[in-house]
Amino acid sequence: MSSGTLYEVGIDEWIYSTLAADTTIKSICGTPTPRIYSDVAPQTSSWPAIVFRELSGKDTLGAGAGRIMGTASYRVIAIDQTESLSANVKTLAQRVDALLCTATTPTWQPKVVGGVTILGCYRTAEIGGIEEAWNTVFRRLGGLYTILTN
Predict the structure, then answer these.
(1) Do the Cβ atoms of 26 and 92 come closer than 8 Å?
(2) Contact 54, 11 (CB under 8 A)
(3) Model pTM score
(4) Cis previous bond, 106, omega within 30
């Protein structure tokens, strides 16, 4: 988990707990502790995995310069050790999107996690591609998400 700001820690907890509770993600990323990592996956990790990371954050200020809302941008991606776009990577990216995009869930209610209220989340862009790390090729697919907090 992150060692960043209060907002980042709360958002990280929300992302992790939301994704780790899903049976489809657990069936692909392992149980009882699925391979879901904040910032970077360890070199010794098994694959596929999900990696999420805060890219930026911004406060919205009200009267008297009091913070009334926070907005954070996160990259959340599924990664597999392959050059081709595997079924596992596609399924993981689809599940991440379905679980995090609160706008598509009419019954979704704000959640308080780690002292932070998660007001909502939406995807701003899909991202994918191939990366090389540790002399190994990895395929990634996921999205950039905006998370609203209070």
Answers:
(1) no
(2) yes
(3) 0.88
(4) no
